[in-house]
């Protein structure tokens, strides 16, 4: 299951050259991941409050392919690549029309309130299993 999240590039997203500042792509894909998780029916605030578990980025592999500029209409597509009991691997692509601008592979993990690794709760594993198929 893939999820598309539209984003428009604002002036504040650009650098002196008039292109999207590289770190803002990470913000774009974070917003898209949050909406993807919400779309699965996972309430991250409730998860934290009830279990003390939060999702955290463990690793990002990113490729900047082409620049986006002010006022571009972009789409962030999020696709689940796989999951284990404690990790979630996602592919995220930022596109302008049919043109791929940015590609990332993101690994998420669960952490406890004290920052210790944790397994995904059973209900989260179930929802992720549904999303994978």
UniProtKB/TrEMBL annotation:
InterPro entries: 4-hydroxybenzoyl-CoA_TE (IPR050563), HotDog_dom_sf (IPR029069), Tol-Pal_acyl-CoA_thioesterase (IPR014166), YbgC/YbaW (IPR006684). It comes from the Bacteria. The keyword Membrane does not apply. Keywords: Hydrolase. Pfam families: 4HBT_2. PANTHER family: 4-HYDROXYBENZOYL-COA THIOESTERASE FAMILY MEMBER (PTHR31793), ACYL-COA THIOESTER HYDROLASE YBGC (PTHR31793:SF37). Belongs to the 4-hydroxybenzoyl-CoA thioesterase family. This is Tol-pal system-associated acyl-CoA thioesterase. It comes from Albidovulum salinarum. The lineage of its organism: Bacteria, Pseudomonadati, Pseudomonadota, Alphaproteobacteria, Rhodobacterales. The gene is ybgC.
């Amino acid at each position: 299951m893939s999820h598309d999240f539209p984003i428009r590039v604002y002036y504040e997203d650009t650098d002196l050259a008039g292109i999207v500042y590289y770190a803002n792509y990470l913000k774009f894909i974070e917003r898209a991941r949050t909406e993807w998780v919400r779309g699965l029916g996972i309430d991250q605030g409730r998860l934290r409050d009830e279990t003390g578990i939060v999702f955290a980025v463990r690793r990002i592999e990113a490729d900047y392919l082409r620049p986006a500029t002010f006022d571009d209409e972009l789409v962030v597509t999020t696709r689940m690549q796989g999951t284990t009991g404690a990790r979630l691997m996602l592919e995220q692509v930022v596109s302008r029309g049919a043109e791929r601008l940015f590609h990332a592979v993101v690994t998420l993990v669960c952490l406890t309130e004290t920052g210790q690794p944790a397994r995904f709760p059973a209900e989260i594993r179930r929802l992720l299993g549904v999303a994978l198929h």
